[in-house]
Design goal:
The structure holds two protein chains of two kinds. Chain A is mostly beta strands. Chain A has one helix and ten strands, in the order H-E-E-E-E-E-E-E-E-E-E. The radius of gyration of chain B is 21 Å and the shape is elongated. The chains are: A mainly beta, B mainly beta. At the A-B interface, helix 1, strand 1, strand 2, strand 3 and strand 9 of A face helix 1, strand 1, strand 2, strand 3 and strand 9 of B.
């Protein structure tokens, strides 16, 4: 019986000690950070109206301009991106809309003033990579030197895509 | 006499199994709960850096002997591409003693940094617990890629 008592006490100690052994003073966890491609572009300033209502006698109607809107963009791409612009549908004959983007920072280069059309997107800014830039002014110029009075509302879509 | 010895033996064994083991921790212990996690950075507000991402699904379960302990954290990744921070939140004291005091958010490095100090008590059956809030951030300039960290939490005498 004494042997049994010693045996059971030993089992008890081993059981308790096993708890201590299993109770490690450190532990690990794997934490993975994945950063995927992020390319974001936004137009600020809302919708605008360009009104052509003046002329110099003996010349065509004066252009109308607007610089109240801007583009913001972010890209974490290491390869070059560009911003394009495109009309949903073309203006009536004799009316055109051009836009230029004044780049305020980053790596992008403005393509200068470009006439917008619906048939294809035109490049407005090129060479953007690993940057975030805001308040890149959109300079719109509407021209209709000989057009008759009319209202034409169009939508311009700006896109940031691979160059 | 034999019966007494048997009864005493069974009672002793019962004490060890159901009381002593569950009530006492003679060495500090710590385990991570919640498993491995992935933080994915995939959005940004145009004109700003990519959005940081946080995760609070994992935690720690820990206890000590009556002495005062602290918990440290470090990463195995010596040269991460991006920033990984951790903050201990919601410390719940288990049973007795104190679950300790959470320290400010740290940026993980290969050097041990304190995340909780002043830990006393806690048992295997009723350990202290806390939540781990991870925050990952990246800049547009840092580009894309993956960082795989192995984070080690250690409970040591303070």
């Amino acid at each position: 019986m004494k042997r049994l008592l010693v045996f059971l006490i030993a089992v008890g100690f081993i059981w308790r000690i096993s708890g201590i052994i299993m109770a490690a003073n450190n532990d690990n966890q794997q934490v993975t950070i994945m950063v995927v491609a992020v390319n974001e572009l936004a137009v600020t300033g809302g919708n605008i109206t360009l009104t052509i209502n003046t002329a110099t006698a003996g010349s065509g109607l004066n252009n109308a301009t607007d610089t109240t809107c801007a583009l913001d963009w972010t890209t974490n791409s290491s390869t070059n991106k560009k911003v394009t612009g495109q009309l949903d549908t073309d203006y009536s004959a004799g009316i055109s809309l051009a836009v230029s983007v004044t780049v305020t920072g980053g790596n992008g280069v403005s393509a200068g003033q470009q006439t917008l059309i619906s048939a294809s997107a035109v490049d407005l800014v090129t060479g953007m990579h690993n940057e975030f830039v805001s308040a890149n002014t959109l300079g719109y110029t509407a021209s209709a030197p000989t057009a008759s009075p009319a209202t034409n509302t169009k939508t311009v879509t700006y896109t940031i895509i691979d160059q | 006499m034999k019966k007494r010895i048997i009864i005493i033996s069974i009672l002793l064994l019962g004490y060890f199994v159901f009381f002593a083991r569950d009530r006492l921790i003679f060495a500090a212990s710590l385990s991570v709960t919640g498993g491995d996690i992935v933080l994915t950075i995939s959005t940004a507000v145009a004109g700003g850096n990519p959005d940081s991402v946080s995760n609070e699904v994992s935690g720690l379960s820990y206890g000590t002997n009556p002495q005062t302990y602290k918990i440290t954290a470090r990463t195995s990744l010596a040269a991460p591409l991006f920033t990984l921070m951790v903050l201990v939140k919601n410390i719940q004291t288990g049973g007795s003693g104190s679950g300790g005091t959470a320290q400010s958010q740290i940026t993980l490095s290969t050097t041990d940094q304190d995340v909780v100090v002043g830990v006393t008590g806690g048992t295997l059956a009723n350990p202290h617990t806390c939540t781990l809030e991870y925050t990952a951030s990246a800049t547009a300039a840092q580009g894309t890629g993956n960082d795989v960290h192995t984070i080690t939490y250690t409970i040591v005498k303070q």
